[in-house]
Specification:
- Chain A: InterPro entries: ABC_MlaD (IPR030970), Mce/MlaD (IPR003399), MlaD_Phospholipid_Transporter (IPR052336).
- Chain A: This is Phospholipid/cholesterol/gamma-HCH transport system substrate-binding protein.
- Chain A: It comes from Marinobacter pelagius.
- The complex is a heterodimer.
- By secondary structure, chain A is α/β, with parallel strands linked by helices.
- Chain A is built from 2 helices and 7 strands, in the order αβββββββα.
- A 7-stranded mixed β-sheet of chain A has the order 1-4-3-2-6-5-7, with no helix packed on it.
- In chain A, strand 5 and strand 6 form a beta hairpin.
- Chain A is elongated and about 80 Å long.
- By secondary structure, chain B is mainly α.
- Chain B is built from 9 helices and no strands.
- The longest helix of chain B is centred in the middle third of the chain and has 39 residues.
- The radius of gyration of chain B is 22 Å and the shape is elongated.
- The chains are: A alpha/beta, B mainly alpha.
- At the A-B interface, helix 1 of A face helix 2, helix 6, helix 7 and helix 8 of B.
């Protein structure tokens, strides 16, 4: 086969490899080509974060409005402090909203759901949620039920 | 009795000597700087033989492995009512493990054995030594393009394998078994991370490509120049490559994903 034909086929092979890598990046790992959306940071303190993990989603009425950045322990109150970055376009979360840890499905991953309050004021960047609701612990629930409390 | 012990010692010495020879051989190949003008067409030709011609077996195996993963995963996951997680299972399995490993095993069987046989026959028919007589360095002219071709082609093949496998899994999961397409992709995208999963799998395939190509060209270059020698070198290529790939995969997985 002519050298030129081989070169073209090898070129196509390389392009196919790059295209496959692109598919893995965009379609499979959901990397979005646009620049990171501008976000602002909110905090929430929980007694128990359960299986919450960084990179988990923060949603409002089921719509994803942000991600969990980090989870750390507050050494003074022994509560977990969760840092969330919320999309900048959602800038009118009422100040008395509460952050609730929910589970998607019975055994799915856990995420933070923001229940809307009724305050006219809205949360600003760096604010902390006043009221929170910790993760539902299935084992505790069952033991409470079994001991009749 | 003493003879047995002596033969064991000889075996050990042989292994160590061959490891040393392969290391010196690799250093020789890599230190021969490829000449851009004359070396490039040779490299392209080898990428064609090693990479493009292996595409068929890689694509077909990828498709079937993805389909089997879809079918088997559905059977298990539907017991727990979480068949929507099938996309995440298929993608993580393929991208992290099966993509690099199975491609490397296929690559060793399809391309590695051919490299060994080709170089071994060149040695047996004294083409390599006549090249040296003409002042052409066979390491640079024959070995280096083949090593680099394996090194370049293997990651590309592994990535294509993963993509075809995921497509095959989607074919079975979504089109045939009726998993909702949105949750198939959504679950996958929320659990697969580009750097942690895709790039680590890619690094694995780069390592495997290097090891497979190295073993193949070394076995060919080092073989006993008879027909029996070539056949045993070809066998060794496939056996050693497969063992090296599986062993290295465990080590790499432990290093990359072992921290949880």
């Amino acid at each position: 086969m002519a050298q030129r034909t081989i070169e073209i086929i090898v070129g196509l092979f390389m392009v196919a490899g790059l295209a496959a890598l692109l598919v893995l990046a965009l379609q499979v790992s959901g990397l979005s080509p646009k620049a990171a959306e501008s976000t602002y940071t909110l905090y929430a303190n929980f007694n128990d974060t359960g299986g919450l993990t960084p990179r988990g989603k923060v949603s409002m009425a089921g719509v994803t409005v942000g991600t969990i950045e980090s989870i750390s322990l507050d050494k003074e109150t022994f509560q977990a402090r969760v840092e969330m970055s919320i999309h900048s376009e959602v800038d009118n979360i009422p100040a008395d909203s509460s952050a609730v840890i929910r589970t998607s499905g019975l055994l799915g991953e856990q995420y933070i759901d923001i229940s809307i309050g009724g305050d006219m004021e809205s949360l600003q960047a760096g604010d902390t949620f006043y009221s929170t609701q910790s993760a539902m612990n299935l084992e505790r629930l069952i033991s409470n039920f079994a001991s009749g409390k | 009795m003493l003879d047995r012990i002596a033969s064991m010692g000889r075996l050990g010495l042989d292994v160590v000597a061959s490891l040393g020879r392969s290391g010196r051989f690799l250093a020789g190949v890599l230190s021969g700087v490829p000449r851009p003008v004359t070396g490039f067409p040779l490299l392209i030709k080898q990428i064609y033989t090693v990479g493009v011609l292996s595409l068929a077996i890689v694509v077909v195996s990828g498709l079937f492995i993805g389909m089997v993963l879809g079918l088997q995963g559905y059977t298990i996951l539907s017991d727990y009512g979480s068949e929507a997680a099938i996309g995440q299972m298929i993608a993580l399995t393929l991208v992290r493990e099966l993509g690099p490993v199975v491609t490397a095993l296929l690559f060793a069987g399809r391309a590695g054995s051919a490299l060994t046989a080709e170089i071994g026959l060149m040695k047996a028919t004294e083409q390599l030594s006549s090249m040296e007589m003409m002042g052409v360095d066979p390491l640079r002219r024959v070995i280096a393009p083949r090593l680099w071709a394996g090194f370049i082609a293997m990651p590309i093949l592994a990535v294509i394998f993963s993509v075809v496998g995921i497509w095959g899994g989607m074919l079975v999961g979504v089109e045939w078994l009726g998993v909702f397409e949105g949750s198939f992709w959504g679950n996958m995208q929320s659990s697969v991370d580009f750097l942690d999963d895709v790039m680590n799998g890619f690094i694995k395939s780069v390592v495997f490509g290097f090891v497979c190509a190295w073993i193949a060209v070394f076995q060919g270059y080092d073989c006993v120049p008879t027909s029996a020698g070539i056949s045993s070198a070809t066998t060794k290529t496939v056996v050693y490559s497969s063992l090296a790939v599986l062993g290295l995969d465990f080590v790499l997985t432990a290093v990359m994903f072992g921290d949880f």
